[in-house]
Amino acid sequence: MNTVDSHTQASTADGGGHRPQPSGVGHSIPSAPATPKPRRRRHHAEGLEAGKRSTRTLLWILLGAAMVLYGFPFLYLLFTSFKTPIDTIAVPPTILPREWTMENYANALGRSGVVASFVNSAQTAVISTLLSLVLAVPAAYGITRYKTPSGRVFIMAALVTRMVPPVAIAIPLASMMASAGLSDTPIALAIAHTTISLPLSIWLMASFFEAVPQDLEEAATVDGCSRLGALWRVVIPVVSGGIAVTAIFAFLASWNEFLFALLMTAIRSQTTPVVIANFQTQFGLDWGSMTALAAVYSVPVILLTLLLQRKIVAGMTLGAVKG
Description:
This protein is mostly helical. It has helices at about 1-15, 40-80, 85-90, 105-110, 115-145, 150-160, 165-180, 185-210, 215-220, 225-240, 240-255, 260-265, 270-275, 285-305, 310-320; strands at about 280, 285. A hairpin with a 2-residue loop joins β1 and β2 (about 285).
């Protein structure tokens, strides 16, 4: 017995009686190897980003080129309006005036008939715009809501009339207005201008009405509105931006028109484009006065566009998205 106890104590002293350690304790667990980053994905993302930057740069270049092409003629007209009479006919021409002067504006605005031509242009443009809207809104609404075959034929016929040269209808219209006793009046010229702007107005308003969900009108009819009441109280406020866009195009078509104004007006209702074309001297065209009056004539349209900018953007967005 003593022998066994002494043997046990010796074994313990020698370290031979130590208990086995559990597995995993005292040993480091090897970590999993790090997964390398996917180089292909990184290179692909970098390629896409570089492509986007290139596309963005190209778009900015094209936008800058378009602005130069559209803006340079107006800037040249504006600079010419400040040149002296000698500089306006100088060869080779210069972009900037050698000597800045306001003489051309004084001569242009001081001529007889210029102020009256502005009034005639404004009257004609406003009447033509109102006529276009009054006729285009119900026509486009009926075409888009009833969707009859005759409506499709009508809107295609409106598009075809845009392809007819204005000179083909200018002379018959002038003869008709003279027979009706409306020769040399803003009303006759406004009616003639409406024939130009009405087809485009119908197409624009049709696209805007197509973007309005019919559920709005059905809800209005459930509440007791008639079809006309739903159009006036519900649809018209929704497409107010589109109406502003259509009004701008109709106003510009009348404001800048020259051929009908030349054939259908004499003295009382001459518009400004016709007056500008008559700026001549014994040596030829009076370029200084012409450019000065043209610059002044552009101001109302620019201001109108800036005032209705939000409506125009809203109208363009409405016409581009189907409801």
